[in-house]
UniProtKB/TrEMBL annotation:
Residues 133-185 are annotated as: Disordered. The lineage of its organism: Eukaryota, Viridiplantae, Streptophyta, Embryophyta, Tracheophyta. It comes from Kalanchoe fedtschenkoi. CDD domains: DnaJ. Residues 67-132 form the J domain. It comes from the Eukaryota. Pfam families: DnaJ. InterPro entries: DnaJ_domain, J_dom_sf. Residues 135-146, 167-183 have a biased composition (Low complexity). This is J domain-containing protein.
Length: 213
């Protein structure tokens, strides 16, 4: 008579065979579910089952055309080179055919090895990230000539056709010494630059809108 423990072990082996059958038919979710069932039925199978599931996950990511980061099990596309290599060592111990008896092991190891080859090489990784859209585009750089044409802060000369406002009245007694004001204006606009000692204040008015810079 078969006792409960032996029955669970036998059922666990059947679950493993079912999982391997599913993976050969590319039924990844069913394969993982069967392997988890094997772990539940026989805890002694946990280590082996985890390795099998790792191989299944690699194949699922590769067949779904997911990124090399997903294939390798790396969540952060900004992971360092050291983190990439550490994750490869972890995965290779789980999916290498010498360590993993699954029918998926050989193909899974090829996929993680290919991911490492690309992601551990700075030039290849940069090209891959750019292709996948992971690299943020830098803002266009201004040429030296463009930078040279930019006027210094608070240095503004009105274009031709703009007229200088009438001279401002002398500063009242309430104004502080060392204050100077220049105003330029045209039809519907004005531009005033006020310097108080080392500070500069600019007021721009266009129509009914006034902005203090």
């Amino acid at each position: 008579m078969v006792n409960a423990a032996d029955f669970h072990k036998l059922a666990g082996k059947h679950a493993i065979r079912a999982a391997e059958d599913y993976i050969q038919r590319s039924l990844f979710q069913q394969a993982v579910q069967s392997m988890n069932a094997a772990k539940d039925l026989d805890p002694d199978l946990s280590c082996m089952a985890d390795n099998y599931i790792a191989a299944y996950s690699v194949l699922e990511a590769a067949h779904a055309k997911q990124s090399l980061y997903k294939v390798l099990g790396v969540d952060d596309v900004k992971a360092s080179g050291a983190e990439i290599k550490k994750q490869f060592r972890k995965m290779s111990l789980m999916v290498h055919p010498d360590k993993n008896g699954s029918v998926a092991a050989e193909e899974a190891f090829k996929h993680v090895s290919n991911a490492l080859e690309v992601l551990s090489d700075d030039k290849k990784r940069l090209a891959y990230d750019d292709k996948m859209g992971y690299q943020k585009k830098s803002p266009p750089q201004q040429s030296q000539q463009q930078r040279a044409r930019r006027p210094p802060p608070h240095c503004w000369n009105p274009p031709s056709g703009f007229k200088k406002a009438k001279p401002q009245p002398a500063a009242s007694s309430s104004q502080q010494a060392g204050t100077s004001t220049k105003t330029f204006s045209g039809e519907g606009w004005s531009f005033r630059v006020t310097r108080v000692e080392k500070n500069t204040f600019i007021k721009v008015r266009v129509g009914d809108t006034t902005v203090l810079l």
